[in-house]
Write a structure and sequence with these properties.
The protein is α/β, with parallel strands linked by helices. Helices cover about 35% and strands about 10% of the residues. The longest helix has 28 residues.
């Protein structure tokens, strides 16, 4: 297992990131970071290099362009076991990046605001973050990708025990989580933007995706397996991301008119029976009862 030597950190959710960076630095990793993340890490006394020092290009366009550069993408995507990849890095003076710690702009929080404008939604669509996450996840054999602060403690524990390296199994688990994160992010963007073009209060497409909350004892029958899926604290039908409900001010659905009443004979002969939905004259009578001949069975299917 290769040791984690170079880490790129760029996070919106800065929960625990300073302590994580400090521990990574103590383990001998070089830290690269962007914008406010770099400033917070530096102010805590942890050595960190701005990504602009790596790329040789300043952050620009109000932060829209930070990490979209070959010296970042190449350092993440290069396969360490491919001599031609490593030669290309050496020719272009690109250092490999062994870990990417990224979480994304909070698009869903902005989208949840009832008065969110389209311009605000667009500005909160992350570009560089998903690119780095997907690149690192694609190259999971050589690069660890971390998208949640909940993973910091476990990763540090493994790094300490293994001398600064992460196992193949851990990298694969983190990669799958990363792809799930970007998929959910894109789904949230697509669903929210589609609401502006919907002809009615309900969406044209409904995409359901829910984590498993618990295993159940059995399914519809004792020999079947079953599980409960949804979001903690919410039922599937009430998730804001998945459904759109009519407001209290929506007009009520008009009541259907009742059909005219049937005559006595018609009602007696054609009223639905609670037994298999048969008409009364088609029911099979118990043995010994009235109407037990073959003619009374002719309509039974």
């Amino acid at each position: 297992m290769r040791k984690i030597q170079r880490v790129l950190i760029s996070v919106t959710d800065k929960t625990g990131v300073v302590d994580f960076a400090r521990e990574l630095s103590a383990l001998g990793a070089e830290l690269i970071s962007t914008g406010g993340t770099a400033r917070m890490i530096r102010e805590s006394g942890v050595p960190v290099k701005d990504v602009s020092e790596v790329t040789g290009f300043p952050e620009m366009l109000d932060g829209r362009v930070k990490t979209l550069h070959p010296k970042v993408a190449g350092g993440i995507l290069a396969m360490r076991g491919r001599p031609d990849h490593m030669q290309a890095l050496a020719e272009q003076k690109i250092a490999p990046i062994d870990m990417v710690v990224v979480n994304l702009y909070r698009f869903e929080e902005v989208a949840a605001k009832p008065d969110a404008r389209l311009e605000e939604l667009i500005e909160n669509i992350d570009i560089g973050g998903p690119s780095m996450i997907r690149a690192a996840a694609k190259n999971y054999q050589d690069v660890a990708v971390v998208v949640s602060p909940r993973d910091y403690a476990g990763i540090l524990d493994e790094l300490r025990k293994s001398g600064g390296a992460l196992s193949h199994e851990t990298k694969w688990r983190l990669a799958k989580q990363a792809f799930r994160t970007t998929a959910d992010y894109d789904a949230a963007i697509s669903a929210r933007l589609a609401r502006d073009d919907s002809a009615g209060p309900l969406p044209q497409d409904l995409n359901l995706r829910a984590p498993k909350l618990m295993d159940l004892r059995y399914g519809e029958n004792p020999h079947q397996s079953a599980a409960l899926y949804g979001a903690r604290g919410k039922g599937v039908a009430t998730l804001r991301r998945w459904t759109t409900c009519r407001s209290a001010a929506s007009p009520r659905r008009p009541q259907a008119t009742r059909p005219p009443p049937l005559s006595r004979n018609s009602a007696r002969n054609r009223a639905p029976s609670p037994i298999l939905g048969l008409r009364k004259r088609d029911r099979v009578q118990p043995r010994g009862g009235r109407g037990n001949g073959p003619r009374d069975r002719e309509d039974l299917r």
